[in-house]
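Hello,

Following up on my earlier ticket. Below are the two sequence lines again, exactly as submitted.
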Amino acid sequence: MTGLLAMFRRLEGPQTVGRGPAFWALFALVLAAALAYPLFSDGYTVGNTVYFFVWVFIALSLCLIWGYGGSLSFGQTAFFGIAGYGYGVLTINFGSAYGFTLLALVIAVAIAALFAVLLGYFMFFGRIAGVFLGIVTLAVTLMLERFMAQTAGPEWRIGAARLNGFNGMSAMPPLTIPWPGEPIVLFADIGLYYLVLGLLVLVYLALRILMNSSFGNVIVAIRENPERAEMLGYDIRKYQLITFVIGAALAGLSGVLYTVWGQYITPSSMGMTAAALPLIWVAVGGRSDLTSTVIGTLVVLAAFQALTIYGSQYALVFMGVLLVLTVLIAPNGLVLGAMNWLGRIAARFTQRAG
Amino acid sequence: MSLLELRKLNKHFGGLHVTNSVDLTLQAGEIHCLIGPNGAGKSTLFRLILGEHHPGSGDILFAGEDITALKSFARIHRGLSVKFQVPGVFRGLSVRQNLEIALQSRHRGTELEAEIGRLLHFLGLESEHTQIAGNLSHGQKQWLEIGMAVSLKPRLLLLDEPTAGMSPEETHLTGEMVQRLNADGMTVLAIEHDMAFVRQVAHRVTVLHLGQVFAQGSIDEIVADERVAAIYLGQAHA
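Thanks for your patience. The regenerated structure is below:
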C-alpha cells in the first residue's frame, strides 16, 4: 500500500498539472472509457482513433524538448521518417515471422535515437541554441525529405526494399505477435488500438515520473536560465542531449506506428507541413504540460480531420489562425489555460467548503 | 594559504584588451572586494574565473590545481559558486523549486526538505516559498540567488554586485549575511560599487582599471590613495 502511494507521489509534482484523488479518478474513468470504446464502435472508426493516437507520441516528444526543455526542435519529423522507413526496410527484408515485426519496431526506434545522439552531440556540445536549433533541425528534416523524394529509380533499394521516391514505401507487414497456432496480426483496428493505447498510457505515466524527478527539475531549470543551471554544477549539454534523444525515440515511435497503421510511409511525412503541424498541436494544447499536450493534440487533430472531410479547403489556414489565436489569447496553450482556470475554481470551492 | 591564484591572465575581445596581465591571489578565509570604474574588466575577470570565457594566456589555480582548461560545471564541482550581476533565478519556477534544484544533487528525500526549510529561514523567504520567483522584489531575487549559490557550500563564493538596487538597510543585512558565511569558513570575492558595503565587509580591496590591477590594500589605504580617486573622476590618463 505504501509502495503504491509512493509511486503515485512520483507521478505528481510542480512540472505536471493534475494531482490528487479527483484527478486520478478522472484519469481512471477516461481510461476505462477508452478501453471499452472499441466494443461500441466499428472497425473503421477505431482505426481512425488509432491514427489520432499515433500522432500523440511525436507531440509528446515536442512537449518534452520544447515545452519542458526550452529547445525548439522544428525537425521531430526527421526521426519520425527515419524510424518509419527503418521499419519498412527491416520488415520487407526479413518478414514478420517469429515476432520479428516487434523487434523491427524496437530497432527502428533505436536507429532514430542513434541519429539523434549524433545530431544532438554536434548541436548541444557545439552550443547551438535558440532559433539556430530550430533552423538546423528544420534543415535536417527537409534535407531528408528531398533526399527520399529522389529515390524513385530501381537502383535505390536496400535489399528487397525499394525506396520508391516521392510515392514512398508501402506494403510492409503489420505488427504481428507470434502465437501458438496462428500468429496475431495487428491490423489497423481493434488489435492495434489496444497496443497503441497501452503504449500511450505507459509513455504518458513514464514521462510524468521523469519530469517530476530531479532530472526533470534540471530540464526546466535549463529552460528558465541555462547559465544559472550550469553554475549550479550541471553539465547542461548532457541533460539537453539526453532529453533530445528521448524525444527522438518518441517521434520515432510515432513514425513506426504510423507506418504500421497505414502500411506506407512517404517523404512528405518529413516535409514542411508535416514538421509544422505538431508544433501547432503542442502550442495550442500547452507545450509545458504533458496532459495539456495529449488533450490538445487529440482535439486539434479531430477538428482538422473533420474540417478536411466536410469539404473545407481551408483546414491548413484554420490551423494557422488557431496558432495566432493561441499566441494572442493564451500563449501557454488553450488547454493548459483552461485546466489552470478549472484548478483555481476547484481550489476556491474546496476552500469555501473547508 | 592561497585559495585562488590568477597568473598573468590576458583576455582580448578583438582589439580590446579587457584583461591585461592580471595577477591576483586570494587567501583562504578572506573577504576580498573588487572595485573599479565601469568597463574596468571586473565582470570579465569573473567570467574567466568561472570558465564562461577562456583567457588568451595565463593560468587560473584553485586550491593548488590548475583549472584553466576546466568547463564551468567542473569548476563548480571543485568548490566555486557565483551570484550574477543580473539576478539569475529560475523566474518561472517557485522559490521552493529554485532551492530544490540547487540542493538536489547533495540531498535527497526528507533531508532535502529539511535543507530547503533551513535555507528559506536563512533567507527570510519562508512566507514566499510557493511564490513564482519572477514575482519577487528585486532584493528578494538577489537573496534567493545568493541562497542558491551558498547552498552548494562552496569554498569560494563570487558575488557580482550583491547589493545592486538594494536599500541601505537591505545592503547592511546583505553585508551581515556575507560576514556570517565568511565566519563559517567561506572565502568571498565580491564586485561592488557600494563603498559602505565594501567598508563593512572587505578584508582587502583590489582596484581594477583598464583591465589591470591598479591598486591593492585595505579599504583605508585604497580610500587614501589619490590615484584611485583620480581614476574614478576620470583623470587617470592625464
